[in-house]
């Protein structure tokens, strides 16, 4: 008898989906702001700034403090400062969301192939996942530079699906970036309500649904039409 998720690739976002990384990203952003004499941002507010990579996070953080970064050299200098600090602090306060390990174990046992697609730089994506003992769950980790275009392009999701040879794919993410990438790739979507995106996102049933804890994710995925044999 076939396992429930045979021939299915489940692609997870990283920041705000698998790992609550906002505290360490906030520390790196505030370190960068402080060097320019700017006040720190509230660590909680960083949650809404995560999703499109360090460059976008910096630009939005500096704009919040009334000093927009517009010159490319200026942006590059701040990004280097941000990444240099984050390099030594990416696992200080970050942690996987509750229930991640047991959920991934269950999905693997049900035949799913698991991958990560993040807009985090390659220099950090694998190391963050390794720091929390999650590496062995994933057949592939795709970072911002892995393919020619990052999310919200469909390219990373479609490339992962082609590489794994799976007939169907599901994106699990927490922001509009993830939702748009899934729609462009014509993939199913499970939206993490505890993440860094909208609290009440507009979802298109039956191909999209939401979950509020990893304990409930397998049931949400199992309710998609193709799992029930309806598509």
From TrEMBL:
**According to its UniProt record, which reaction does this protein catalyse?**
2-phosphoglycolate + H2O = glycolate + phosphate
EC assignment: 3.1.3.18
Q: Which GO terms describe its molecular function?
A: phosphoglycolate phosphatase activity
Q: Which InterPro entries match?
A: HAD-like_hydrolase_sf, HAD-like_sf, HAD-SF_hydro_IA, HAD_2, HAD_sf, PGP-like_dom2
Q: Name one GO cellular component term.
A: cytosol
* Gene3D superfamilies hit by this protein: HAD superfamily/HAD-like, Putative phosphatase, domain 2
Q: What class of enzyme is it?
A: hydrolase
According to its UniProt record, in which pathway does this protein act?
A: Organic acid metabolism; glycolate biosynthesis; glycolate from 2-phosphoglycolate: step 1/1
One of this protein's GO BP terms?
DNA repair
Q: Which domain of life is it from?
A: Bacteria
Family under the similarity heading: Belongs to the HAD-like hydrolase superfamily. CbbY/CbbZ/Gph/YieH family.
Q: What is this protein called?
A: phosphoglycolate phosphatase
């Amino acid at each position: 008898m076939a396992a429930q998720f045979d021939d299915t690739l489940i692609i997870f976002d990283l920041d705000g989906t698998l790992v609550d990384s906002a505290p360490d990203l906030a520390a790196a952003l505030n370190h960068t702001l402080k060097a320019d004499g700017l006040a720190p941002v509230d660590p909680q507010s960083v949650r809404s700034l995560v999703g499109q990579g360090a460059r976008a996070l910096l630009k939005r953080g500096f704009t919040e403090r009334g000093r927009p970064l517009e010159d490319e050299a200026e942006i590059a200098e701040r990004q280097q400062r941000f990444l240099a600090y984050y390099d030594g602090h990416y696992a200080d306060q970050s942690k996987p969301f509750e229930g991640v390990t047991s959920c991934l174990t269950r999905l693997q046992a049900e035949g799913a192939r698991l991958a990560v697609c993040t807009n985090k730089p390659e220099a950090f994506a694998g190391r963050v996942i390794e720091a929390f003992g999650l590496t062995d769950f994933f057949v592939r980790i795709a970072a911002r530079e892995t393919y020619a275009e990052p999310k919200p392009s469909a390219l990373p999701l479609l490339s992962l699906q082609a590489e794994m040879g799976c007939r169907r794919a599901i994106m699990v993410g927490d922001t509009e970036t993830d939702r748009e990438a899934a729609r462009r790739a014509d993939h199913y979507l499970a939206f993490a309500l505890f993440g860094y995106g909208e609290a009440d996102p507009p979802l298109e049933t039956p191909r999209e649904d939401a979950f509020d804890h990893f304990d409930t994710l397998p049931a949400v995925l199992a309710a998609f039409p193709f799992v029930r044999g309806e598509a």
